[in-house]
Amino acid sequence: MSAHTIRVAVLGAGGRMGSEAVKAVESAEDMELVAALGRSDSFQQAIDSGATHVVDLTVPDATVDNVHGAVANGLHSVVGTTGWDASRLEALRGLLEEHPEAGVLIAPNFALGSVLASAFAAKAAQYFESAEIVELHHPNKVDAPSGTAVRTAELMAGARQAAGVGPSPDATQQEVEGARGADIDGIRVHSVRLRGLVAHQEVLLGSAGEQLTFRHDSFDRASFMPGVLLGLRTVAQRPGLTHGLDGYLDLGL
Were both Cys, which of 18, 26, 75, 164 would link to 12 (CB 3.0–4.6 Å)? Predict the structure, then answer.
């Protein structure tokens, strides 16, 4: 084992994403899987394993304690678990100020194509009058909208605000509750839950006489693993909090 080997503990190893992460880490020549922990395992086992990096693919109720524990013990964290709202992110930033050597990546999506599509959509959104998002996932997904859709909407809204673009036109006066989707910073987001799907997203942009669509499809959870491995290889060189895998990509936008 090289002195530069990344020693990884996977949390949530029994889940669909976690089991893929275990296989990806085991197949990476520059990594060693030192712990694969399930729901009933203690986080202390990750510390005792000698891990330098943690991949958290657990559940929203567990992820905050896991990441705070990793930071407090000098471990770097790559996090794919949802539930990191503004207050949780702010608390994590405060903890990281006390442990400036630790790096944390919180990624709503690890699929490189999805990250690129969201970045392209944010860039394009400032040039179109209307902007909406449709996200489609399997029916076992516990959150709606997806973290990816929320992140995409936030990026698009920020770009539109910076460019002085007004809200999308909408003359709706009567609606069944939820018919127009969730409002994320002025961007409407619609969630579909359907058997047979994995993870899919469409960004719809429109102006008079034209429409631009960005669509990304993940047909297998293996599509997320290149992003997980990129996060593991980068996070130690990026101390502090990075929100979104786009922070590790040279997009030049």
Answer: 18
Helix (H) or strand (E) holding 148: helix 147-162
Span 83-135, pLDDT tens digits: 898 999 999 999 999 999 999 999 989 999 999 999 999 999 999 999 999 99
pLDDT in tens, 43-58: 999 999 999 999 999 9
Q: Which two tokens stand for residue 232?
A: 């593991």
Give the residue ranges of the annotated binding site for (S)-2,3,4,5-tetrahydrodipicolinate: 138, 147-148
Token pair 């990344």 is at which residue? 6
List pLDDT tens digits, range 136-150. Answer: 999 999 899 999 999
- DSSP per-residue codes, 77-96: EEE--S---HHHHHHHHHHH
* 142, amino acid identity: V
Q: Which residue has the tokens 């992003």?
A: 227
pLDDT (average), residues 162-174: 96
CATH class for the domain made up of 6-106+222-248: alpha beta
- Assign 157 to helix, strand or coil: helix
What are the binding residues for NADP(+)? 39
Q: Which residue has the tokens 């930071």?
A: 71
CATH T-level topology, domain 112-219: Dihydrodipicolinate Reductase; domain 2 (3.30.360)
Q: Which residues fall within 8 angstroms of residue 87, CB to CB, at 6 or more apart?
A: none
Active site residues: 137, 141
User: Torsion-angle region of residue 181: left (phi > 0), alpha (psi -120 to 50) or beta?
Assistant: left
Say how far apart CA 115 and CA 119 lie, in whole Å. 6
